[in-house]
Specification:
mainly beta; about 35% strand; disordered C terminus
Length: about 170
């Protein structure tokens, strides 16, 4: 099957399936809720760009652009998640588990001038998420993992995840 959006592909694929995303720019409307085990594979992070059409919320699950439900596995690779021009609190908000490999996080920011001053690539509430070969650029707070811990992994610079596994903070 062919879908015009990544969100359509996730909704249309069977549980445990893979959504192959061709090179191009995809503007996604609304929050992308991942409520099944799924893998998203882009053609290449330099040519497969995913952008939000609107801002995320500022608290709870509404703060996640991609919201991964508990007990679900979401794997993503070979894409750029580009928040340029939008307020994005978290690009990926995990309640489940998965892998993030070769993903570029670009301009994931929320209220750049305050008062919230946030923006994180990957928020891990529960579960274990492996982040490898990924970059975080243009964030106020490039958080690789956070749970009530506002300390960023990097601030105002590129960050290459080198750890094999990021566990949730505060556990």
């Amino acid at each position: 099957d062919s879908f015009a959006t990544v969100q359509g592909g996730i909704a249309g694929v069977t549980t445990g399936g893979t959504v192959n995303v061709y090179a191009g720019t995809y503007t996604e409307i609304g929050q992308i809720v991942v409520n099944k085990d799924v893998t998203v594979v882009g053609a290449d992070r330099a040519t497969t760009i995913i952008k939000p059409a609107a801002d995320t919320g500022s608290s709870g699950d509404l703060a996640g652009w991609f919201l991964i439900d508990a007990t679900r596995t979401f794997n993503i690779s070979g894409v750029t998640l580009d928040g340029t021009g939008r307020m994005v609190w978290h690009a990926l908000r995990y309640h489940g588990s998965g892998t993030v490999n070769n993903v570029a996080f670009l301009n994931i920011k929320f209220e750049e001038s305050g008062p919230a001053y946030r923006g994180g690539g990957v928020y891990i509430d529960t579960g274990v998420v492996n982040v490898t070969n990924s970059t975080f650029n243009g964030h106020q707070c490039a958080q690789g993992a956070q749970r009530g811990d506002p300390r960023p992994l990097a601030q105002g610079r590129q960050y290459l995840c080198r750890t094999a596994r990021l566990h949730r903070c505060g556990a």
